[in-house]
C-alpha cells in the first residue's frame, strides 16, 4: 500500500493527473457503501452560475430555479405558495450585498455569489447558493427537488 499526499488547492500536477481515477473511486464508494444510484449527478452536471441578471445562464435558468425553490419550500418546509413566490425567491437567494470581483490571483470564476446548479436529464434538480470569498466558500442555502431526496443531494453538495 502506498499513500501519497497530493495538493488539491491549488491543484498540483499530481492532483490533476489522478483526478478522474480518484473521482471513480469516490463514485464507486458512494454506490457500494451509501447505495447511491449510478445516475447521481456527476461533476459534468454541476454548473456554477454567477447570481446576476446580466448573466445569460442565470437569466435562462431563473424560472426553473424559482419554480424548484417553491416546490422545495412547500414540500419540505410547508410554506404556502405566497411565502415562496418569485419575489421572495429573489429577495432571499438572489439579492446579495457581495459584488462580483475577478482578482488576478483569484479563482477562475471570480469572487461573489453563485448558484451551484445540479442538472439531471436537462433539468435542475438542486441548487446550492454559495458565496465564494478570498479565504472561504460559504454555503448560504441548498434546495432540491423532493422527488430526488433519495440522492441525498444536501450531503453530496456539502462534500463537493
Let me know the largest β-sheet.
Answer: 4 strands, antiparallel
Total strands: the figure is 4
Q: In which order are the strands of the major sheet placed?
A: 1-2-3-4
Gyration radius over CA: 17 Å
Mean pLDDT: 87
Name the poorly predicted regions: none
Helix content: 25-40%
How much strand?
Answer: 15-25%
The total tally of domains equals 2
Structure class: alpha+beta
| Separate helix tally | 4
Taking the alpha carbons of the first and last residues, their distance comes to 26 Å
**Overall 3D geometry?**
globular
GO cellular component, one term: cytoplasm
Organism: Polioptila caerulea (Blue-grey gnatcatcher)
Keywords: Transferase
Protein name: ATE1 transferase
Layout: helices, strands, pairs:
Layout: H1 13-33, E1 46-50, H2 56-76, H3 86-93, E2 112-120, E3 123-133, E4 136-144, H4 153-159
Antiparallel strand pairs: 1-2, 2-3, 3-4
Q: What does this protein structure show overall?
A:
Residues 66-160 form the N-end rule aminoacyl transferase C-terminal domain. InterPro entries: N-end_Aminoacyl_Trfase (IPR030700), N-end_Aminoacyl_Trfase_C (IPR007472). The protein is 36% helix and 21% strand. It is α+β, with helices and mostly antiparallel strands. The protein has 2 domains: 1-41, no CATH class; 44-157. It has a 4-stranded antiparallel sheet, with helices on both faces. A hairpin with a 2-residue loop joins β2 and β3. The chain is globular. 18% of the residues are buried. The mean pLDDT is 87.
List keywords for this structure.
160 residues; alpha+beta; 2 domains; four-stranded antiparallel β-sheet; 4 helices; globular
Amino acid at each position: 500500500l502506498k499513500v501519497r499526499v497530493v495538493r488539491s488547492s491549488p491543484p498540483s500536477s499530481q492532483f490533476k493527473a489522478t483526478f478522474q481515477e480518484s473521482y471513480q473511486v469516490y463514485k464507486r464508494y458512494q454506490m457500494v457503501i451509501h447505495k447511491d444510484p449510478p445516475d447521481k449527478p456527476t461533476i459534468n452536471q454541476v454548473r456554477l452560475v454567477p447570481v446576476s441578471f446580466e448573466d445569460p445562464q442565470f437569466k435562462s435558468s431563473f424560472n426553473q430555479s424559482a419554480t424548484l425553490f417553491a416546490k422545495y419550500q412547500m414540500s419540505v418546509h410547508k410554506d404556502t405558495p405566497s411565502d415562496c413566490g418569485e419575489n421572495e425567491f429573489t429577495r432571499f437567494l438572489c439579492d446579495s450585498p457581495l459584488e462580483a470581483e475577478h482578482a488576478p490571483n483569484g479563482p477562475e470564476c471570480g469572487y461573489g455569489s453563485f448558484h451551484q446548479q445540479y442538472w439531471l436529464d436537462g433539468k435542475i434538480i438542486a441548487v446550492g447558493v454559495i458565496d465564494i470569498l478570498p479565504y472561504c466558500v460559504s454555503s448560504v442555502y441548498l434546495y432540491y427537488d423532493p422527488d430526488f431526496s433519495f440522492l441525498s443531494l444536501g450531503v453530496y453538495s456539502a462534500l463537493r
